[in-house]
Design goal:
Blueprint (H helix, E strand, L loop, with lengths): L3 E4 L9 H16 L3 E4 L13 H11 L5 E2 L7 H13 L3 E4 L3 H7 L3 E2 L2 E2 L17 E4 L1 H8 L3 E4 L3 E4 L9 E3 L7 H12 L3 E5 L3 H14 L5 E5 L19 H6 L4 H9 L8
Parallel strand pairs: 1-2, 2-3, 11-12
Antiparallel strand pairs: 4-7, 5-6, 7-10, 8-9
Helix pairs in contact: 6-7
The chain binds glutamic acid.
GO cellular component, one term: cytosol
GO molecular function: ATP binding; glutamate-tRNA ligase activity
Protein name: Glutamyl-tRNA synthetase
């Protein structure tokens, strides 16, 4: 089977070293297998998305010596998200939720991988259809449809999909026709990604993605959740914590190919 990997940055801020590492890992896994490496701009995060960053990203990747195929940005695929959500809704698998983040924090009784787990408040009450609502997946109902699911991570091995850990996740946001979970899962299927390569911080999301795939009868790729580059305090790299933007390094005349070589040394086969 052809290996198709992807790098899927969100244009909410400039790329930094952690992104460069993610792009190089995805690129090299495809290249080593004679496969394809895709770039997908995940630009539906409303006001936080800055269109001009797409060009910056392309210049950054070029500077690192990478070659890619670009697939359509998420903002051009909204109809496919709406259609999929509509189908799930017609099957009774989604329910509207008007809770605010603050209400959820106050009502939650446990924490999941993405913070307080939604306690299902809106599942049990009638909601005025005129109110802006998100749509949540009724995970219990969904699991009753799919039964137990598995997925394969190239580094961590075979996983039992534990979609219940995060509770009833948002599938359609109040302000957008999809959440990250729905959009990324549909896009990976549409793009033919066979090896979804991303940072270990998104490992937990894959349990949900596997469930969405089963519900929508989408092809099931393999995953490769690579280690994250950390700062000297052991925290994930972030621009706000002083990790410089690749664009600044590039514009300061640093050698991108040399940087890419250094980053490659950090992708240890053990994934540790
Ligand atoms: N757009 C996501 C991010 O920038 C990555 C999503 C993914 O790789 O699935 O964190």
């Amino acid at each position: 089977m052809e290996i198709v990997t992807r790098f899927a940055p969100s244009p909410n801020g400039p790329l930094h070293l952690g992104h460069a590492f993610a792009a190089i890992v995805a690129h090299d896994l495809a290249q080593a297998a004679g496969g394809r490496f895709l770039l997908r701009i995940e630009d539906i995060d409303g006001p936080r998305s800055r269109a001009e960053l797409g060009d910056e990203f392309r210049r950054d990747l070029e500077w690192l010596g990478l070659e890619w195929e670009e697939v359509p940005a998420q903002s051009t695929r909204l109809d496919s998200y709406t259609a999929a959500a509509q189908g799930l809704r017609e099957r009774g698998l989604l329910y509207p939720c008007i809770c605010t983040r603050r209400e959820i924090e106050a009502a939650a009784t446990r924490k999941g991988p993405e913070g307080p787990v939604y306690p299902g408040t809106c599942k049990r009450r009638a909601i005025d259809p005129a109110l802006p609502a998100a749509l949540r997946l009724d995970v219990e109902k969904a699991l009753a449809v799919t039964g137990q699911l598995f997925w394969m991570d190239e580094l961590a091995g075979k996983q039992v999909a534990d979609a219940a850990a995060g509770g009833d996740v948002v599938i359609v946001r109040k302000d957008l026709p999809a959440s990250y979970h729905l959009a990324a899962t549909l896009d990976d299927a549409a793009d033919g990604s066979t090896l979804v390569t991303r940072g270990a911080d998104l490992f937990h999301a894959t349990h949900v993605h596997r469930l969405i795939q089963a519900l929508l009868d989408l092809p099931v790729p393999r995953w490769h959740h690579h280690r994250l580059l950390l700062d000297e305090k052991g925290r994930k790299l972030a621009k706000r914590r002083g990790s410089p933007a690749l664009s600044d390094r590039r514009e300061a005349g640093e050698d991108g190919l040399m940087l890419a070589r250094q980053l490659r040394l950090q992708h240890l086969p053990s994934g540790t």
